Amino acid sequence: MTCKEAAYRASDYFEGALSHSEVAEIDAHLASCARCRTYFEQTRQLIDAMHRLPRSYSYSPRTRSQIMADFETHHSVPRVFGIRRSWVFVAAGIMTVAALAVLVWIAQIRNERPAVLQAVTLDLTARGPVRGPEEGPPKPPLEIPRGNLDLTIYLPFGSEPGIYDLQIVRERGKPPIWSSEAEARLENYKTTVHLKVDAHRWKSGAYSIGISAKGWPWTYFPVVLRSQK
Hints:
8 strands; eight-stranded mixed β-sheet; alpha+beta; Immunoglobulin-like; 38% helix
């Protein structure tokens, strides 16, 4: 196997797209060719860096193929294996891999950055539940903003501490757009639930928040989701 034949199969080699006999040929060639080993190592690092990109930075198969094609074109065989240009190839390959590694690092930092939570309180202590479509709420519905919420809920008077199921629904009887389980505790004479809620993708409009103590029926309260100003 020549250096040119080995180089053209580098990406397929690391993606597992070659037959056992082709892999064996390449392995035999790499054992005796230092410049090919350098090229294959840079190709491996490039593929590994692309695989480590977070999902939010995902790309189509076409984009991936274009990256690999540009890499291979930039390090075409006449340049790669020309004696006078070998160090140019090594330096350019390292810069390519390093640039993608920086992109991975930046993306990971952004993903790990803690979300800014907005403190929101729903006070249900003096509010009656919605018992049917014909019954109007005694008070205007509470409002919650879109975004990442640090939500505090004061349950209605008489609610006991314990484990509660909670959900947000557009219409009663329909699947909830959000649901969770939380423990209610007595704080400052109010039965209180604390939750982290990601509501930035919900559509603005009228909803109901459902609350159920374990083994008890659901009780619903009207809320309105509003956009941030």
